Amino acid sequence: MSTTVDTFTVAETAAPRGRRRLAGRVGRRLVGAIGVLFAAATVTFFLQALMPGDRARLIINQSNGSLTNPTEAERAAVAERYHLDDSLLSQYAHYIGGLVRGDLGVSYFQHEKVTSIIGAQIGSTIVLTLVALVLAWIIALTVTVLAAGRDNVWSKLASGFQIVSASIPQYWVGTIFLVVFSIQLGIFPVESGSGIDGLILPAITLALPVAGFLGQVSQDEFSRLLHQPFVTSSRTRGSSDLSVRVRHVLRHAALPGVTLSGWALGFLFSGAVIVETVFARPGIGSVLVTAATARDIPLVTGVVIVSAAVYVVANLLVDLAYTVIDPRLKDQ
Amino acid sequence: MSTASPSFDEAPAGTGGPRRGAVAWAHLRSVPVGVLLSSVVLLLFLVAALVPSLLETHDPFATDLAASLQSPSGSHLFGTDQSGRDVFSRVVHGTGQSLLIGLGSTGVALVIGLVLGIAAGLGGRWTDAGVSRFIDVLFAFPTLFLALLLVAIFGPGITTTIVAVGVGTSPGYARMVRGQFLAVRDAGYVEAARAVGHPPSRIVRQHIFPNAIRPLVAIFTLGVGQSIAFASGLAYLGLGVAPPAPEWGALLDAGRQYVTEAWWLELMPGAAIVLFALAVTVVGRHVQERLEGNVKVRIP
Fold first, then answer.
1. Is residue B252 part of a domain?
2. Can you give the pTM of this predicted structure?
3. A216 Cβ contact list (under 8 Å, min separation 6)
């Protein structure tokens, strides 16, 4: 969306020095991305500051399993360690200062650095997310080429699939897959682990709703493009229907989908939490769920900020990739 | 979706023609079967929410250890759980609370969305720029993560679920409302009203508001289905409404540990959620086409 807006800005300032403008564009995007991340961290910080109750007491009670009031000395030690008694502004400064150095603080209950807890688990989630994104694209493009602009069985199936995949919760689809393929048929492991055969069901489950959505967007664009002059011209040159669809229309129709991939990556990352829980797959999901249940604020905020960073970086990459894919942006 | 629908410029609010009754009847007759079927399903859910005893086949809380973990059968439509409670009756009993969560959180999301969206859409250039940036920042949080953060801060429970799902889904509404108000503000009939010399307050009240708000009815309908699915996802993770309550998500959470031996504990309450979400989507899309809204709904 923001890309379209930018097309106009670039067009307005039309000048011969394309490269310098590209550099300026990249620079502006980078500054914007950092700004969004900083704002996201600020929102997160002030949200977590709203937490009711005495945190020092919560931490002490959770760690020794009692519900009693801690002694003043115990309380002071914990408050000192987590800077709980500092003023809000000094806590904020400390927090942002840590972020700049890549430090997300220490977990309340695992007594380990948040970055190392996340670092140990995030790889598995990123693999799952990327495999799901590729799968979603394969499904969406296949459906688009077969169904768009036609009134046949495929197009009916496709529009049904899009409605259904958008309204079915992932844990439900995942559970059906788990019951059918793992428990009844025994093809895949019940607990996914980190092996390749434990990746297939979670990735398909995660990919389906995104495939439905990407499919819908590129199908709309595809149907619109089928009536463009360049399509008619390649048809008059004798290209077969399939060849026109794959070689000419598909390239253009994929553009809006590419823009949405940044959004899709954020969506997949968040869906991964649920899918990982369904298939008992290690990853950021179990970290987040355990942390949220225990109200381990530094760990939860850490995961939230990392995921916001993933989203921002993904959109930045998509935005920059757009200039490469769509040469019109450079020519203008 | 609605390819042949007239744009807002041609359809200002409140154009009731002389043959209103005839038009309504023609509309009703042209309603597709799927939409009628979905409406019946929604009606059944409404009955389950308001008078659950009409549909319950057993006492949803009566335990019977001799009949624990039975698969679905004639006497127990959805099977029984680990304590021998009838899953169907529990699903029926939970409908009210689940719908409340769905309506409540969509309401919260819509209020936040309206406040932000109207400020951006009708405020000046700078307000728009500021609010739009803020919406961008909210978008950087994956919806579920924002909700989980709120649950971690305030502890799980029904109020937290409503607020968390509402806040989590609000950025989408805010962006939609903003777009809607911008589009209507620049519409031909608003320009005409301005040219005729109507005061701004009257233009906003009579022209901009009704036309910008109307499509949101359908979006609200669609949103309720999404919110329920979303809230049940939170509950599935064990962070929604706590189990004894037979809310749909809580049923899912309670059934998770038995999934290898009793699939119905997980799939049957899930089926209720899916059925509701599908019915709402079908009806919502129909309403949307009828209202001739040009907004495309995208609430992930």
1. yes
2. 0.79
3. A162
